[in-house]
Write a structure and sequence with these properties.
Chain lengths: ~120, ~110
Amino acid sequence: GAVVSQHPSRVICKSGTSVKIECRSLDFQATTMFWYRQFPKKSLMLMATSNEGSKATYEQGVEKDKFLINHASLTLSTLTVTSAHPEDSSFYICSAGSRGGYEQYFGPGTRLTVT
Amino acid sequence: EDQVTQSPEALRLQEGESSSLNCSYTVSGLRGLFWYRQDPGKGPEFLFTLYSAGEEKEKERLKATLTKKESFLHITAPKPEDSATYLCAVQAPQGGSEKLVFGKGMKLTVNP
């Protein structure tokens, strides 16, 4: 199946700093990438959808100025959590969909801890 | 509004004890129904996509089926390594969006 990577897998940062998470599709071109957030023992919550070369579409209640998404190429999307606070601590997961296909393939996730 | 409900929320089985997980959905214009497996601390792993009622797909001990209102994930003679959270999601065309709507998941524990 298609492979999606995320980096870093874990990150600890201080309150007020920014953190960038990378999502890469390794063996296919991802026309669309999705960013999710998952709280402990909860299902995935979609944060935003990004298409290569265009602005991301954010879900209701997600602050676009806090969670900056860039989808600069068909294999790379980044999520930057700006001015992080402890309540931003969570498990962030990206997924990627290929052109013409309906399946989404997920990355391994990034555990963010803000102290 | 598109909705996905999974039941039961948690299930404990003995090794070899077959069972089924249910995913019921309400969606306008189903494009696809997806099953994923998620292990703790990891991203979801793609299992199946079902597109139309009557469709079935199999992979090892797992078999997924689809009707117009629900999908079942049948687990035959499960092993402890099948323990995981199983997620069901639907995709419907919403203004061209391809986003998935997930159920809350079903945590399966298979005891040896």
